[in-house]
Amino acid sequence: PLQSKPQAVVTFPGELVSGLSDLELAESYLLRFGYTTAAEARTSSKHVSLAKALRKMQKQLGLEETGELDARTLEAMRAPRCGVPDVGT
Amino acid sequence: FLTFEGDLKWDHMDLTYRVMNYSPDLDRAVIDDAFKRAFKVWSDVTPLTFTQIYSGEADIMIMFGSREHGDGYPFDGKDGLLAHAFPPGRGIQGDAHFDDDELWTLGTGLVVKTRHGNANGADCHFPFVFEGRSYSQCITEGRTDGLPWCATTASYDRDKKYGFCPSELLYTNGGNSDGAPCVFPFVFDGTSYNACTTDGRSDSYRWCATTANFDQDKKYGFCPNRDTAVIGGNSQGDPCVFPFTFLGQSYSACTSQGRQDGKLWCATTSNYDTDKKWGFCPDRGYSIFLVAAHEFGHSLGLDHSSVREALMYPMYSYVQDFQLDPDDVRGIQYLYGEQPWCSQEWDPMVLGWPQPHALPCIGSGRGSGPEPTAPVPAPTEEPQPLPTEAGSTSTTEEEEETPAPTAEPIPVDPSRDACVENNFDAITEINGELHFFKDGKYWTLSSFWDSGIQGAFSIADAWPGLPAVIDAAFQDVLTKRVFFFAGRQFWVFSGKSVLGPRGIEKLGIGKEAGRISGALQRGRGKVLLFSGESYWRLDVKVQRVDKGYPRATDDIFTGVPLDAHNVFLYQDKYHFCRGSFYWRMTPRYQVDRVGYVKYDILQCP
Predict the structure, then answer these.
(1) Is the distance from CB of B324 to CB of B311 less than 8 angstroms?
(2) pLDDT at position A18, please?
(3) I need a surface site. Which of A4, B133, B208, B453 has the fewest CB within 10 A?
(4) Which residues on chain B are in Cβ contact (under 8 Å) with A82?
(5) Strand runs (DSSP E) across B21-174, as ranges?
(6) Which candidate from B80, B83, B278 shows the least CB-CB separation from A17?
């Protein structure tokens, strides 16, 4: 049935994944899985380092290499996966 | 594929593993079986062996845990990270950890294995009917002891088959009570408990005392999850409580209200608004077998692959009929080599024949196995008749005569690539070219012209009147007539005429045969027809099977899969296909090669 009033959205206690923006999600994903390092992120401009890391990730995961945080890339970042880093140790 | 830096690998082939604890989501027998199958994925293609041990330090220690679980690499609650494993080595190296905030299943939803009852531990059948009502979860109706139960067939009323569902009232896992059930109420730290609790623990596992007083007896066990247990949230493992109140409204089922992601959740007390206790409702879950097979790849030295179809691709996706991708096989064989029976040193008299489920040798080129000595023609047991002329068979009233194919088929869809097909309806050699049939199309491959795969062509154009899906075909070597089989019917194409369809009972093949899975030409005028685990010998001239048949395929074709989907003769050798693989057998009935239809026969890139 159609909702007669806007749905209330609540913050559920104990939920770990909450409130991360797409950009924050991407940054933590790229760092966690080895596509960028904290040092790299500090030494180059944020936009350049993000695009470079995104290309690296997109290549590794067989996605179109756009260097952009597009829908497919975000979808891949949200997909269930193994916790072992893709790059590095 | 990728290996870890420095090609980390085990220095021995006889590896041990130990399961340190079990997820409450699944019966431990189901988990043990899944791990065993996951290791077998790798031992099938390498000389590695895996033995489960129950105490002491194993090469691969396996555990379930959540959040920070002791190694500095915390999990992240439900979804997201599922598991991780460490490359080969001592200590934590080689170990595999699984996030117990996930719902572990076999990939398609809750697996509720029963105990006791009268169904020999069968899984629950949901929904099931009890006293005229349909139930999709374990129930306590009909009992006074509160033990949840389910039917193991669709109708308890009809079949009376049942078993008890996981419950702390029936048994506990781990702990120090040998599986004894919880005792309620029990006293812990001076407080009385009427249900399983996570109090006193930092890992969120639910436990109970198995005597009335833990403080005094120190006897405890971990509670198995009921089928209504929630995943994640802040009540992992607790059952949903229906009805519950949320924002003043009453809910009698899981809901997605209050969430933007559409995930279903429930409260684990009767009032979310006051207690704020909740968790996600069971979904399909993640296959412990698939995730374990991936993690064990890491434990053996494989890093993530960039091949999407590979097991070692980092993202999870559920596949029903799992088969190891060639990329994974190449990776693991790069580290450990091939099965002994793939090597030149393999002696079947010593090591035995490869099992039908074994995977192929695709590695360093050693995989072709021992080649037979001079080919021996298949013996014919009876004098063979002279060839008949093409088209000489009479037409009966039930047979239709229709035009036969033109000599040169025209590709109808060159873009339809045989290499994307996982298997074929039928494979046979016609006029010296292998034909691969699938869903109304077919491709050809000539070993003589080296022109690669040709097609796709239309079956309807080439052999009008045939159904789109055919089960088997063969060309009579004497008359060049082509026989096609689909279901229990067959057609014979000769020159420009076709006879059929006719029932295979006309050939003398009884109702015990379903589909004909393939055919092997045996000398002049005789063809073996395979169905199920049996075969018949057809006298092509008289179109009747010989007396003394069917015979068991296993009697002489030992070491090939008995449930082969295609059977055909190619380059004087017998080929038995199952899934993506084929078993090649010499005329001396020796399996001399197991390989991929796609890569080894079709020569796909």
Answers:
(1) yes
(2) 55
(3) A4
(4) 81-84, 291, 294-295, 298, 304, 314, 316
(5) 49-52, 60-65, 81-85, 96-99, 104-105, 128-130, 133-135, 149-151, 162-164
(6) B80
